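Researcher: Here's the sequence for the chain we discussed earlier.
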Amino acid sequence: MKAEKTIATYRRLRTLPLWRLLASDHGPLVLGLLQTLLYENDRSLPASIFHERIERELEELRARGEKLATAQIYVAGWLADGYLERRFPPGASEEEYELTTAAVEAVRFVSNMEQPHSAATESRLALVIQALVHLAEDTDQDKHRRIERLLAEQTRISKEIEAIQDGTIRVLADASAVERTREIIALADGLTGDFRRVRDQFDQLNRGLRERIMDNDGNRGDTLGSLFAGIDLIGESEAGRTFSAFWRLLTDPEQAATLDQALDSVMSREFVSLLDGKDRRFLLRMTRNLLEQGGAVHEVLQTFARSLRHFVQSREYLEQRRLNQLLKDAQRAALALKDEVKATEALNYSLDLTSAKIWSYSQWGLYDPSLQALPDQMHEGDAPPIDLESVGNLVAQSEIDFRTLKANVREVLTLRAQATIAEVLELFPAEQGLGSVIGLLALGSRHGFRGQSHEMVNWLGGDNRAREARIPTLIFTRERIDELV
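Model: Thanks. This is the structure I predict for it:
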């Protein structure tokens, strides 16, 4: 049955986010909100701004009679369904949201349905013919034919110059110019989707390389050997080489100048007034958008390459491999017992689970300062010490911006051979208050060494009041600066 394979393929594709979004009963609502917030103007938004804007849109829809849930519920569902993704860019103070590749393709597909291409337009046919002609010429190895074509082109150019000098100028009609401009916009907009797919390929490649390292039981597999030899496996992959060539072309000064000059010339033409406002804005921001999207992918490429090298050189993969082996041992032990212990058999073992007791606000008593000691009986105490065990507990319960803290420590170590936490805070005050101090303690206990004394550190609390604490002296050294990537 010839259709059987196709049917099976479509059934598999129907489970993917793109098809599920288009087939969803709430698809128009989801696509409309995502296109408005994360496609037309901004391609990524910080979490606080995104939640605020989506809640504003939902309020307007509720005012018109729509029964809608909260913004948090929608965002959580879109993340689980694969329509949104969260990223934490280096140096950012909060996570950012952007559309997944599937959501972008869904938005573009529906937009094209709303404004379909004219059938068999002249501009599209001209693009196809021109591309085929260039392909045939660039792949021709016969020098005689190439010379003949160049001479014919030279004759055509000479005749066109003579016609212009005689006052005959052939200018593309406004309707054809508008149609060709829209084709160029569609091609350029498609590049942004290509950027996202390339970034997803790098992400999958990074995960695949790490899995190969984890699954390799030997000390020196092919992947490990290449990384220890200094080979950039992500950059040297097919996707990496293809994107690097594209990035070099995009950032070439001559090509950039040519593109900017062509855009300025097109925007000065009269037919541009016939374009929609959205198309004109796209042309004005085309160069910037391409550079921003390409730059984001280039940064992801470099980040994955650095993190993979650090993963191997710091020997973190050994600990991950040990944990992986423990999980496999547990699975094998469970499989060995499955025939001896039935699922319905009672076990003489109790497992205490953690729980949290919920109290109503009405059961809380207000704090009464008069019940405490009088002010003249109170004395200012010494700064409380912070030990490394309590630091570990605080780190596990906090969301600390370790990227910024690592960058600050690296910056300090470029100025001096070694530095303590107090010296780092002198140049880079604690932006997260106590959280920054705790983060530096965690980094110091892992990437530094402990001194014999203690030191005082200072920061501003959430109430804008100065705080200080006595902590163990942890010293960062320039020799271990590569661990802070």
